[in-house]
């Protein structure tokens, strides 16, 4: 049995015996993404934010969430996905990342899905210039591909320091 697991792991880069993990899926442009559901605190409609001077473009500003000042990061801007349009489908996913609360703006939330090792593949090394350190894998469900994002890695310490500096005021 272990030989089969090891053979499958070597063959496709996944551990097929891994337990199911749940992911919240969302859309950015034409692509579908997934983040671990355990990092999600809540999902809200997009509201106006208070802009903070001297922050990167992808940091839209902050909102007051029941007395807590929460920085809002627009992933569409961070990923360079072209023109950003805010409409009735635009939502903010409020995340709790090791006690740090941050919101991410996405085009829309799709579903919660359970994935196991047979559905998740490693990211191929296609082009060295593409930064894949925040991508944990690619999942295929019913012929649809999802990019699984390590949201904590994406919100790296340098960027979060900028966010912290913006919200101290």
Which descriptors would you attach to this protein?
169 residues, alpha+beta, OB fold (Dihydrolipoamide Acetyltransferase, E2P), 6-stranded mixed sheet, 4 helices, 11 strands, 18% helix, 42% strand, globular, disordered N terminus
Question: Quick summary of this structure?
Answer:
18% of the residues lie in helices and 42% in strands. The chain is α+β, with helices and mostly antiparallel strands. It has a single domain (19-167), classed as Beta Barrel (OB fold (Dihydrolipoamide Acetyltransferase, E2P)), CATH 2.40.50.
Would you kindly provide a written description of the structure presented here, covering whatever features stand out?
The chain has helices at about 1-10, 75-80, 150-155, 155-165; strands at about 20-30, 30-35, 40-45, 60-65, 70-75, 90-95, 100-105, 110-115, 120, 135-140, 145-150. The protein has about 170 residues and is of the alpha+beta class. The protein has one domain: CheA-289, Domain 4 (OB fold (Dihydrolipoamide Acetyltransferase, E2P)), CATH 2.40.50.180. The protein has a six-stranded mixed sheet with strand order 8-1-2-11-10-9. Mean pLDDT is about 80; it is low at about 1-15.
